[in-house]
Amino acid sequence: MLTSICGINWGDEGKGRMVDLLSRDYDIVCRYQGGNNAGHTVINERGKFILNLLPSGILREGVVNVLGNGMVIDIRHLTEEANKLRAQGIAITPENLKISDKAVITMPYHVLMDCLEEERLADKKFGSTRRGIAPVYADKYMKKAFRMGELLHPERLYARVKDIVEWKNLTVEKGYGHAPVTAEEVIDYFKTYGEPLKDYICDVGLYLHEANKAGKNIMFEAQLGALRDIDFGIYPYTSSSSTIAAYAPIGAGVPNLKLDKSVGIMKAYSTCVGEGPFVAEYFGEKAEKLRAAGGEYGAATGRPRRVGPFDVVASRYGIRCQGADEVALTKLDILSGHEELEICTAYELEGERITEFPFPDALDKCKPVFEKVRGWNCDITACRKYEELPREARDYVELLEKLCECRITYISVGAERDEIIVRK
Ligand code: GDP
After folding, report:
1. Looking at domain 2-103+199-264, which of 3.30.565.10, 3.40.440.10, 3.20.20.140, 3.30.870.10 is its CATH number?
2. pTM above 0.85, yes or no
3. Could you read off the pLDDT of 397-414 as tens digits, one per residue?
4. For ligand 1, which residues put their CB under 6 angstroms from it?
5. pLDDT at position 128 over 90
6. CA 20 – ligand 1 centroid, Å
7. Which atom of ligand 1 is nearest to the CA of 414?
8. Long-range contacts for 404-407 (Cβ within 8 Å, ≥24 apart)?
């Protein structure tokens, strides 16, 4: 079974929590895109963990985790993240972590360039997480990046450093006027953070291909949601890679394999980190209340997230982009305690009501059309069966199914592993 777990919205839907739950049925969990710019929070019987680069399967014994070629890997961050988890009692060895030789290395100068560019943009900034992600993907496509597999042949790698540094300084030093990057610091960096990872680096494509032939179950875990996809998202306020399920086999290293299932993770309301259009946004007291109830502060950056009610227009588009066969609705418990709830069922664009997600440039001119539905006043965290949910909560779920044309098979009512309703 090859399954992709992907985000329907702007990210932070609770993908980590769902991968943690569903990984019990999988032998291998792969990350296939992005870097350490996003954070998954997972709470289970072993503790509370924040994962930026490592797949959530790392928290389950017996699961093998893969960092695929579609990723950009900050080797210092990876080392620190792994050591933090080890201190929390999680084993991380070449047995349960395999890193693609074709994954690209995020360098300190990528982080520097990210910061320099955000500062240059000042009030026009994109709201980058400043983890170097856009600069390193740019270098990948310029064919000027370093890849993990090069760490296995240091002499060849070091011979390439001088040329790359010379080219990089055309922007860092001559463009931004910053102190130059030196070849020595780059080589030192590889020695300190790269070489100790040698035993983890391999041809993960071959590993996954063989595993699939042997009948192993493989899960692909996305970081960020459909609306942050470089092609299909709210460009340019997107991530720099493809967050789409169809890309999962490519980004993991097995373009020859086809997914059996795409599970979309969709939040019961909307949140968005950083800049960019966010049509159904709440402001003021309404926003404060929802943000506080949902604990909506970025796991990677601590930034307060922008919040709003459920957005049907954006979510239905996200479901289509992800080809979601099933949807897991998360954080429904956060909506408890309201007489009435709003949902955004359409946008108004230049006097016209639209229900299909437009070309992103038009989003700034879109106004949300809110409709009211009945809420529920009781706590639903203890519900484990669909029938135990109050009528109004079930109506809410069924209305989203109808409006978004999807099948909601999981309803998450809390952050803990077992706080879930399975509805097959
Ligand atoms: P991800 O990046 O998609 O994994 O999402 P984040 O980790 O950024 O955000 C999800 C947050 O919500 C985490 O703190 C989870 O522990 C928490 N969470 C996930 N599902 C639920 C839920 O159903 N109810 C509540 N109350 N919290 C949840």
Report:
1. 3.40.440.10
2. yes
3. 999 999 999 999 999 999
4. 7, 11-17, 38-41, 43, 299, 330-331, 333-334, 412-415
5. no
6. 11
7. 24
8. 404/266, 404/312, 404/315, 404/316, 404/319, 404/327, 405/316, 405/319, 406/264, 406/266, 406/316, 406/319, 406/324, 406/326, 406/327, 407/325, 407/326, 407/327
